[in-house]
Amino acid sequence: MRIFFDVDYTILGADYSLRPGTRETFARLVDDGHEIHVWSGEGLRHAVLKNHELAHFVTGVYEKPIRDYVARLDVLGVDVIPDFVIDDYSEIVTIFGGYYVTEYYRHRDDDTEMHAIYECISEWVASGASSHRRWRPRHEDFDAMLGKSAD
Ligand SMILES: [Mg+2]
Question: From ligand 1's centre to the CA of 150, what distance in Å?
Answer without folding.
Answer: 27
